Amino acid sequence: MTSDNMLQEIRTEDAVGMVLAHDLTQIIPGEFKGRLFKKGHVIQKDDIPKLLDIGKEHIYILNLKAGYLHENDAAIQMANLVQGENVELTEPHEGKVTIKSIIPGLAKVEPELIHQLNKIDEIAVATLKNNSVVEADQGIVGTRVIPLIVKKEKLELFEKTIEQFKQNHNSRSIIQVKPFLKLKVGLITTGGEVYTGRIKDKFGPIVKQKIADFGSEVVEQRFSPDDAGTIVQHIRDFKEEKVDLILITGGMSVDPDDRTPGAIKQAGADIVSYGTPMLPGSMLMMAYLDGTPIMGLPGCVMHDPYTSFDVLLPRICAGEKIEKEDITVLGYGGLHNC
Ligand SMILES: Nc1nc2c(c(=O)[nH]1)N[C@H]1C(S)=C(S)[C@@H](COP(=O)(O)OP(=O)(O)OC[C@H]3O[C@@H](n4cnc5c(N)ncnc54)[C@H](O)[C@@H]3O)O[C@H]1N2
Ligand code: MOO
């Protein structure tokens, strides 16, 4: 007997008729990784060679004492303690519970708390990054304890850490998925070369597709020469038409014809940031005009698949307000092939 006499080691050849204490995993590189036997399975004579094939010369018989939890029950408890809106739990599998989204949306995870929880010895909580875009049925979090049996005290500490975090953060959900709203988007395409027809607009279709990907719609596209007054007029018209988001493409960098940042300021918007420390997408402007988000989109959004626009857009589509702090953190890890 080991581990406070709760785990009895039995030779596999002598284990016929006994009950497995946990899921047993087989891994064949490139072919299979998964559960070969499930916890609770009663071992049959035919199972013996299969068990030996996966390297199990001994198995555990479990005699759990008060004050201890089986890995499956610990994983369920941990998942229940962190789960919030629009998610569901899977059954435990090889000691792990997965929290999955039930809708497409924006996954919210509290990094600071996840770090605190993982400081508890024998606890493992693996998550997607905060603000990841997820599909329905996609896993967001996996919970597991490292040993097969764990002291209940560990889970009590886990729970207390969460309670304390909630007290300090207005009972904020730990893990949740925010649905995407159906926004009406007004698009202003600037650039004399497009306005006069010298070149075809290639920015509009790309932005329209990105908006549609989150279930929103560009309700109108207007074209403007490199003239601040015209851009301001289009902004005001869209504001009157009560669009939910105004996007302005081009004219965002350092040339004399780059009129977009000036026009957004001239329209009276509050500027959250001109510039982001992410490449590509460093010349993006984030602003709000009486609560309506306005974004100035630099040329790279038309060319690069992943820019600061692709980081901020899903959050805006999920109804979040972008603050300066959301922009400043984009620099660390923010160099993407640019
Ligand atoms: N010396 C510097 N050069 C650049 C800087 C800088 O800080 N200093 N920033 C770079 C960054 S970052 C970007 S992004 C680009 C472009 O920024 P803009 O938003 O000002 O882009 P434009 O000058 O308006 O156009 C650039 C390019 O894209 C074509 N374009 C624009 N709109 C359309 C459209 N609707 N359809 C088709 N093509 C379009 C335009 O004709 C130009 O070829 O600046 C870097 N340079
Ligand atoms: O706004 Mo610009 O690329 O950073 O490419």
Automatic annotation (TrEMBL):
Question: Which pathway does the database say it acts in?
Answer: Cofactor biosynthesis; molybdopterin biosynthesis
Q: Which residues form the MoaB/Mog domain?
A: 186-318
Please give the superkingdom of this protein's source.
Bacteria
Q: One Pfam family of this protein, by short name?
A: MoCF_biosynth
Q: Which UniProt keywords apply?
A: Magnesium, Metal-binding, Molybdenum, Molybdenum cofactor biosynthesis, Transferase
What the protein does comes down to: Catalyzes the insertion of molybdate into adenylated molybdopterin with the concomitant release of AMP.
The entry assigns this protein to a family as follows: Belongs to the MoeA family.
Matching PANTHER family: MOLYBDOPTERIN BIOSYNTHESIS PROTEIN, MOLYBDOPTERIN MOLYBDENUMTRANSFERASE
Q: What is this protein called?
A: Molybdopterin molybdenumtransferase
Q: What is the lineage of its organism?
A: Bacteria, Bacillati, Bacillota, Bacilli, Bacillales
